[in-house]
Design goal:
By secondary structure, this protein is α/β, with parallel strands linked by helices. Helices cover about 40% and strands about 20% of the residues. About 5% of the residues have low confidence.
Length: about 400
């Protein structure tokens, strides 16, 4: 049975009185939404919401799901999905179009994001937040990253039908070229992750030093280095505390700037570790407002005071340091295509992920990857590559 509650909430609704009230409340709030969808409740009835054609169906699997959805609280709805209280049939990315109708007000959580670095120190917060995200088993990330590079940042796509490996090979070539690296060059990578750039460069005879605060990444990199006998040295150290005895020909920062929101401190450290005339390659997801991040992302994916890159703030900070900007590239659509590729790989490996890491972990990263794709598609997030050059001495 399909019940249309779109007529000012006056149509009959099967089920309990409370369920009927919640369904009608959702309808009143979403009746002008251009995003149409269906919802199947415990009683087997399907209800229709929104003004547009239905592009997906929500299947309620737990009695508490309806309350969470009717809150129109983005964080509560995300948690309900992670907990398995509802499933979605149809085009999963379409559910994120409803974000415009939701709120995400969690003042105490937001306050703690800013209080924690003041109380604990930025280095301690970095270690804690990195541990929450990156200390998962490397095998988990490899279920959705590309098979050739294991790169956890955007590729560079020239057409929508390219696969991840092609886009990432183009990206790695671009980094090597822009940093003017050759056999014997010495490069520092901040956050080598699972060896995407480090291994690619080292196989060309480039000497790579990586600094990471993830023990899982360190273990992975040590195994990779030993297995292929590559010129890579990986250290367990926060970049903001790294004091090398030498300066490097280049510094590569792929997908890590989001974890380093104190731009003057980062630029000072880059100045410290880079040779005069050397180059810095940075890429990062970006936003127009500092620390703008959903409660779901900041609680369950990237805790701490992480911030997407604020390009104008970064460039303003750069004027106080001996760097010139040599290039900027807009990668928003490339990051959208990257996230779609990752999300599809995650979905194709669902059975393995659930068996080895749990249903909640699969659902958490499914929301994260498809939601990120949607943000880049709708221009809620941007993405840039930057190349800086240190002034000659």
């Amino acid at each position: 049975m399909t019940t249309d509650v779109s007529a000012a909430g006056t149509a009959p609704v099967a089920g309990s009185r409370r369920s009927a009230w919640l369904l009608n409340y959702i309808d009143r709030r979403l009746q002008d939404s251009a995003i149409g969808f269906e919802m199947t409740t415990h009683d087997g009835n399907t209800h229709r919401f929104g003004a547009g054609p239905a592009s997906f169906r929500v299947n309620i699997t737990h009695r508490s799901a309806l309350k969470a959805i009717s809150s129109l609280d983005e964080g509560a709805i995300a948690q309900a999905y992670v907990d398995g209280w509802f499933d979605v049939e149809g085009d999963f990315i379409k559910i994120f179009d409803l974000r415009e109708q939701l709120h995400d007000r969690h003042p105490f959580h937001r306050l703690w994001r800013f209080a924690a670095p003041l109380l604990m120190g930025q280095i301690a917060v970095n270690k804690s937040s990195i541990r929450r995200h990156y200390e998962r088993d490397a095998e988990f990330f490899l279920t959705f990253l590309d098979e050739s590079f294991h790169c956890y940042t955007q590729g560079v796509f020239l057409s929508p039908d390219e696969d991840l490996e092609v886009a990432f090979r183009r990206k790695m070539d671009h980094v090597v070229e822009e940093c003017r690296l050759a056999p014997g060059s010495q490069v520092l990578e901040v956050g080598p992750g699972w060896g995407a750039f480090a291994a690619y460069a080292a196989r060309q005879g480039i000497e790579v030093t990586g600094v990471t605060i993830s023990t899982k990444s360190l273990e992975f990199m040590d195994r990779l280095t030993a297995r292929e006998d590559l010129p890579i040295t990986t250290l367990l150290c926060d970049f903001l505390e790294y004091e090398p005895e030498k300066q490097f020909d280049a510094v590569v920062v792929l997908g890590i700037m989001e974890h380093m929101p104190d731009y003057p401190r980062v630029l000072a450290r880059l100045d410290r570790v880079l040779k005069p005339g050397g180059r810095v390659f940075i890429d990062a997801g970006a936003c127009s407002r500092k620390y703008e991040m959903s409660s779901f992302i900041s609680q369950q994916i990237y805790p701490g005071n992480n911030s997407f890159l604020i390009l104008h703030d970064f460039l303003k900070s750069m004027t106080s340091f001996p760097f010139d900007l040599k290039g900027v590239w807009d990668d928003r659509i490339s990051y959208y295509r990257t996230c779609v590729g990752w999300a599809k790989r995650l979905d194709s490996n669902r059975e393995f992920i659930v068996e080895n890491f749990g249903e909640a972990e699969y659902r958490r990263f499914r929301l994260y990857l498809w939601g990120s794709a949607h943000c880049f598609l709708r221009n809620r997030l941007q993405c840039y590559r930057l190349v800086l050059e240190k002034h000659p001495s």
